[in-house]
Amino acid sequence: MSIAVYPGSFDPVTYGHLDIIERSAKVFDKLIVAVLVNSEKKPLFTTEEKIKMIQEGTKHLDNVEVASFSGLLVDFARQRNANVSVRGLRAVTDFEYEIQIAQTNRQLNKNLDTMFFTTSMEYSYVSSTIVKEIASYGGDVSTMVTPFVEKCLRDKFARQEA
Predict the structure, then answer these.
(1) I need a labelling partner for 73 at 20 to 30 A (CA). Which of 9, 36, 53, 86 fits?
(2) CA-CA distance, 53 to 73, in Å (whole number)?
(3) What is the pLDDT of residues 136-145, one digit of tens each?
């Protein structure tokens, strides 16, 4: 059984992320979307909220599991018997950083390969950071995130204003 892990912060999950998830779910028997818990960052959403948003966006995919992890990806992959890390590339500028991470992970775990998926053109400009900024000003993010995520963003920013 081929098992892949797609790690990220997913704060929040975008159509670009879902594009990578759907396409990589066709390639692997099982895909684990792994939400990184990073104590160094101050995310907008809790880990539990992120997991719920991803589960909502992937409920039609039977071979996708959503989990969280902290620490090294190579350790999480080893624990889950995953032999491939999935990474998305939006632009050439992403590649330089991603290749360094892939090579480091390979050095730490010889059984973990990285497979890069280029994001579909219609999502190449979308990032979680851009989505959060637009949403924080009440802008329309409906072409960037699912209706469920859009509602979560509206609710989150409404609570912050209160």
Answers:
(1) 53
(2) 21
(3) 999 999 999 9
Per-residue pLDDT, 162: 57
Q: Is 64 helix (H, G, I), strand (E, B) or coil?
A: strand
Check if 90 is active-site: yes
Residue 41 designated active-site: yes
- Angle, to 10 degrees, between the axis of helix 147-161 and the axis of helix 47-58? 160
Span 80-108, pLDDT tens digits: 999 999 999 988 888 999 999 999 999 99
Catalytic residue among 17, 50, 87, 132: 17
- 10 CB burial (10 A radius; 0-12, 13-18, 19+): buried
- Give helix 128-136 / helix 147-161 axis angle, nearest 10°: 50
Question: Which of 26, 39, 41, 60 does the annotation list as catalytic?
Answer: 41
Q: Is 159 a catalytic site residue?
A: no
Instruction: Answer yes or no: 128 catalytic.
Output: yes
From 24, 85, 87, 90, the catalytic residue: 90
Q: What is the pTM of this model?
A: 0.94
